[in-house]
Each structure stands twice: as C-alpha cells, then as structure tokens.
Design a protein that fits this description.
With about 425 residues, the protein is an alpha+beta fold. It has 2 domains: about 1-215, Nucleotidyltransferase, domain 5 (2-Layer Sandwich), CATH 3.30.420.40; about 220-430, ATPase, nucleotide binding domain (Nucleotidyltransferase, domain 5, 2-Layer Sandwich), CATH 3.30.420. Helices cover about 30% and strands about 20% of the residues. It has 12 helices and 21 strands. It has helices at about 45-60, 100-105, 115-125, 130-135, 140-150, 155-160, 210-220, 270-280, 320-345, 365-375, 385-395, 410-430; strands at about 1-5, 10-15, 25-30, 40-45, 65-70, 75-80, 90, 135-140, 165, 170, 190, 205-210, 220-225, 230-235, 250, 260-265, 290, 310, 355, 375-380, 405. It has a 7-stranded mixed sheet. Strands 3-2-1-5-12-11 form a 6-stranded mixed sheet. A two-stranded antiparallel ribbon has the order 4-7. Helix 8 packs antiparallel against helix 9. The chain is globular. It starts with a strand and ends with a helix.
C-alpha cells in the first residue's frame, strides 16, 4: 500500500491506496488556524505533525511502501537546520504583507500578500532577528517532510506558487540561502527517521506536490475544488499569461506542464462562518438579500486583500433562512466571477468541470453552483483528491477516478441567477 498525506488549512488527511489502485482507508484530524490579530493567520507547525499521526492512525496504516505529501500553498514556515520552527507559520489567508505585495515585481503572476515572497519581505522589516535565526523558508508539506527525516527541499508546484519563481526560466528568481533546493515531485526525498507517524523507520518519503496540483493530477484537465477556499484550475500549454495584467495564476503542475488557477479566498471559509454565526439547522432559502463573502479579502479577479463582506437588501421580512441562502449564493457568485476570469485569461476549455472537495458532498450547494456557473459539474468517487494525488506521486497505481454523476444546470434558475449575479457584481464594484 501507499500513503498520501495532505496538510490542509483546517485538517490533515491520510489516504491509503492498495496495490489495485483502490482507496483502502482514510483518516482525518483537525488542525488549528490562529488569528493573533486582525489580518493575521498563523499555525503552530507541530500541530500538523500531531494531526498527521492521528490521521494515519485513523486510516489504520501500519506498513506502507512509500509516503507522498501534499499541502496548503503560499505561506511560510521558518525553521532551523533540523526543522525546528523559529516562529509560528504564516499561512495563505494572512494579509500583513499588503504593502510588500504592492511593491513586489510582477513576474507573470498576480501579487498577493499571503505568498511567501511578500511575507519574507515583511519579516525582513519587522522581525529581522527571527529571519536571521532561520535556515529554511519552507511550505507546510516540505516542513513536515523535513521533520519526518528527509533533507530540506521543495518541488516545482509549490516553489512556483511563492512569487519567488521565474516562470520563463522555470527556476528560483533569486539566489537566497533560505530557499531550499527544488526536486521532482515524484522523486524520493529520503526516509522516515522518526516514530512520529507510528510507521516503520526507513519508509521512503516522496516530495509530493502542492494541494491544488495534486488534486488536478487526479481530476484531469479541469476542476473546481471547494475547501476553505475554492480553486478553478485547468491545464495550459504556456507558463506566461497572454494578458498584461493577469488576475489568474500560472503554476507548475505535479509533473510536467503548467496549470492556470483562479483562486477564491472565501468559499468554505464564508460558509463555515455563516453556520457558526447563524446556526446550522434548517435549509437555506434563495431569493433574499445579496451577500458579498469577502470576509478575508479576495483574490481572483478582485485582487484586494482589504475587501470585506457585506449584506445588502435586508428588510423586516429577512429571516435566518434567507441570510443563509444569501451566503451560499454569494459564495457561488464569487466562484462564477473567478471562473469567468479564468475563461478570459486561459481560454475556455471544452473539458468537463469536475467538482472536488467539500462542495461535492453537499447536493444542494452543488446544484446551486451548477446553476450559477451555467455549466454541468461532474462528480467523482474521490474522498480527497489532494491526498490521492500525493499517493499517486508516491507510486500508488493511478486508477482513473470514476464519474458518479453530473449536476446539470437548471434552465428555470438561469435567468434569475444571471440577473442576481449582475446585481451582485454591481454591489461588489460599489464597495
């Protein structure tokens, strides 16, 4: 068997793949995002290791041929030579480096404050002593692999998503001792040299890939992945965009090639906020007020880390079900806006749009997404595409996922949602 480990923003997932390519077992353990101040998003890296051990135990893994890793993108884990963190990790929703991002050189990708480059620039100004104590600036999955026993390294899919990558030269844009060497995603990085996962020492550790790249490996040509954020991704031939001011990203795929990415900051993030504030009982009702879900800034196509959420159209008739419905609709509209931007910048693909992540587990929301996007969404029999892609990179047989259904857009909903989407866009632009 092969093990895929995915270090997500809210949970670590473990997935075991058998010799026939079938998923044998899965495990999941929560991890915490700390918010020490407004605009901050941090995590204690040791929490990922604890969650990984719990997820592996849940999956019942005892002896595997190799371990592949995937993980959340963009942030920074500063650590010493042995992988001991010198401060909490700074994660992708963090917006402290807004000023640094605005001054960042454009290298074919939009600038965003949650990326490693601007974060390191912020640290150099505000925490120079911390930076001096660090040996490595790593991505979450790369930090975990180092702590498990492999040498410090990264691979192209995560390295190209740091704003420190030269897309044309396909390598680091600058010589910085903090940046680790870059190896192939499917290459063996080293061996497990600790009992932290409850697995035998000597088990091979494979470099793996960024979570979106690992998921796209499974999905094929085009996907909508819905988790804390949402990603609409499709494979492309060229690393550099055809537009002068792109709002979508170009990153290395897990293996050969590139993909274009429209990234939505507020997807599950906004849905979970609404359930926490409004309660989770009862069905959302559509047709009420309009909700802008920009609770933590927004990326594609707005590229505004200072954007914030809003309700408009409230009345005495507005109740909790209408508020919940407006949040679901607002998230769907945010994804629609990002998908439209990707179509413009990368060219509309004829490949089916495959829905992955938590959104595929909520039939009502999947239907709303299909209606808002006005295109079919293909559902796959995949529990966690990022962890499965990591297992494939570790050598598990790559058995193509099975389509278990298609959510078709409803003609009756199209006209109303187009009208409400236009009104929603006007509200966002006025804000």
């Amino acid at each position: 068997m092969h093990l895929g480990l995915d270090i997500g923003t809210s949970a670590v997932k473990a997935l075991l793949v058998g010799e026939d390519g079938a998923v044998v077992a899965t495990g999941r353990a929560p991890c915490t995002v700390d918010v020490p101040a407004a605009g901050r998003a941090e995590a204690v890296p040791g929490g990922w290791l604890t969650a990984a051990r719990e997820a592996v135990a849940q999956a019942g893994a005892s002896d595997v041929e190799a371990i592949g890793l995937s993980g959340q993108m963009h942030g920074v884990v500063l650590c010493d030579e042995a992988g001991e963190p010198v401060r909490p990790a700074i994660l992708w929703p963090d917006t402290r480096s807004v000023a640094e991002a605005e001054r960042w050189p454009v290298r074919g990708n939009p600038r965003a404050p949650g990326f490693a480059g601007p974060i390191l620039a912020w640290l150099a100004t505000h925490e120079p002593e911390t930076l001096r104590r660090a040996r490595w600036a790593l991505q979450p999955k790369d930090w975990l692999r180092l702590r498990l026993g492999a040498p410090a390294a990264t691979e192209p899919s995560d390295a190209s998503a740091t704003l420190l990558w030269d897309l044309e030269a396909d390598g680091w844009a600058r010589d910085d001792a903090l940046l680790p060497p870059v190896r192939a995603s499917a290459a063996v990085a080293g061996e497990l040299r600790t009992d932290a996962l409850g697995l035998p020492r000597g088990t091979p550790l494979v470099h793996g890939a960024a979570d979106t790249a690992a998921a796209l490996l499974v999905a094929g040509e085009r996907m909508l992945n819905l988790g804390t954020g949402a990603q609409v991704a499709q494979r492309v031939d060229e690393p550099l965009p055809a537009v002068d001011a792109p709002t979508c990203h170009r990153f290395r795929a897990a293996g050969d090639g590139w993909y274009a990415l429209a990234a939505v900051q507020n997807a599950g993030l906004a849905l979970d906020w609404a359930r926490r504030v409004l309660g989770d009982d009862g069905e959302p009702r559509a047709g009420g007020p309009l909700f802008v879900p920009h609770l933590a800034g927004e990326r594609t196509p707005l590229l505004n880390p200072a954007a914030r959420g809003a309700w408009t159209g409230l009345s005495l008739a507005t109740d909790r079900a209408a508020l919940l419905g407006s949040v679901h609709e607002g998230v769907a509209f945010g994804i629609r806006w990002a998908r439209d931007a990707l179509d413009i910048e990368a060219g509309r693909s004829d490949a089916p749009l495959r829905l992955l992540g938590g959104g595929s587990l909520r039939p009502g929301f999947a239907q709303l997404l299909a209606d808002a996007l006005d295109e079919p969404l293909e559902l796959l029999d995949v529990t966690d595409a990022s962890a499965l892609g990591a297992a494939w990179l570790a050598g598990a047989p790559a058995m193509a996922p099975r389509a278990i259904g298609t959510v078709e857009p409803r003609a009756a909903a199209r006209a109303l949602l187009e009208e409400r989407f236009a009104a929603w866009r006007a509200v966002v632009q006025n804000l």
